[in-house]
Design a protein that fits this description.
About 1% of the residues have low confidence. The protein is of the alpha/beta class and 337 residues long. Helix content is 41%, strand content 10%. It is globular, with a radius of gyration of 21 Å. The chain starts with a strand and ends with a helix. A hairpin with a 6-residue loop joins strand 1 and strand 2. The structure holds zinc ion (ZN) (3 copies).
Length: 337
């Protein structure tokens, strides 16, 4: 996350804030310029997104612009819980908060965001309560579905333990599922498909069979050598989505560290061995990431908490991350900001 400042007094404000704690100005987030702007100021240029109470949204829309009264993030939500589902609505607000972080990062990375209301198979979100009906978190034809029970900490932790996962968060779900969407944008039907298959495998492998064998027999022994998670071993699509999510974890957290003035010095006096598979910028980024996550894990252990980043990036995984990073950077060059 980039460092944000109050437009009035220049004090630091956080992405989730709706006002400045220093000067008291009412603020909202403007995604296209990635800055906090005054809401209800004399020039009246910006007003709050219509989802301010429903989703606790702190983003803005142009005042009286004749356009949508929903912001760039909220307008991507196609379905939300019914008004009389109080529990679903509370979790919906938590999920929307995670989704705003996701959408802000997609904007910041310069990835194309074309909504479901603009084109067939455009990006959209169904945030559904599984309290009454079964909901399967996943992606299909541009629509990301998230089971809002995942916004309940007790539920999510129980599932995490049942599945033996090292990491499970609502933001992580969003980053994984949107990864499936960006596979259709960045890889499917493009020149990147051969490179994808060389690294991740052939996605034409039967998905149903892959799922049965994953849940029947578990991941293959030694999967850590070439997959970022056990789930990534199930099918090339899942490997891509897991890797895509990790790239977003890495890019966001490193950016936050830099913007917050955090520098990590390698206690051994040298940088870790440069990983293979990336270009210069990517190699530097991974070295910084490895150093930072080691420090962050140690900080968490000092507080008796589990590791912040419970993953090991093997060289084959780094090569996959480099591939995704290259496609994301190339896409950002072609998108007008
Ligand atoms: Zn201020
Ligand atoms: Zn909004
Ligand atoms: Zn998936």
């Amino acid at each position: 996350m980039r460092l944000l400042r109050c437009p009035t007094c220049r004090a630091r404000v956080y992405f989730e804030n709706d006002g400045c704690l220093t000067c008291g100005a009412a603020l909202g987030f403007r995604p296209d310029t990635f800055e906090m702007v005054a809401v209800g100021a004399a020039d009246g240029a910006w007003e709050r997104c219509a989802n301010v109470s429903m989703a606790g949204c702190n983003w803005v829309v142009p005042t009286g612009g004749g356009g949508s009264t929903l912001c760039r993030s909220c307008s991507l939500t196609r379905t939300r819980p019914a008004d009389d589902d109080a529990e679903g609505r509370a979790r919906f607000a938590e999920a929307e908060a995670a989704k705003r972080r996701l959408v802000a990062q997609l904007v910041d990375l310069g990835l194309p965001i074309v909504g479901f209301d603009e084109v067939d198979d455009g990006l959209g979100f169904d945030l559904l309560s599984s309290h009454f009906d079964e909901v399967v978190t996943g992606h299909e034809d541009g629509i990301v579905t998230v089971d809002l029970a995942e916004a309940d900490d007790a539920h999510r932790e129980r599932v995490r333990q049942e599945l033996g996962e090292a990491y499970r968060t609502v933001l992580g779900h969003f980053r994984h599922e949107v990864g499936h969407y960006y596979w259709t944008v960045l890889v499917e039907g493009t020149d990147a498909i051969d490179g994808f298959r060389a690294l991740f495998g052939d996605e034409r492998a039967d998905y149903g069979e892959a799922m049965s064998s994953h849940y029947g027999g578990g991941p293959p022994l030694g999967w850590e050598a070439d997959h970022v998670s056990a789930y990534a071993t199930m099918h090339p699509w899942e490997d891509w989505a897991e890797t895509f999510a990790h790239l977003l974890h890495l890019r966001d957290t490193l950016q936050t560290a830099v913007e917050s003035g955090v520098t990590v010095v390698d206690p051994d006096g040298g940088a870790p061995t440069p990983p293979p598979g990336g270009d210069g910028d990517f190699d530097v980024m991974v070295r910084e990431w490895v150093g930072l996550t080691r420090a962050l894990n140690e900080l968490n252990r000092s507080m008796g908490e589990p590791d912040l980043y419970p993953f090991v990036l093997a060289p084959a995984v780094i090569a996959k991350l480099a591939f995704v990073d290259r496609l994301v950077r190339d896409a950002s060059l072609t998108v007008a900001r």
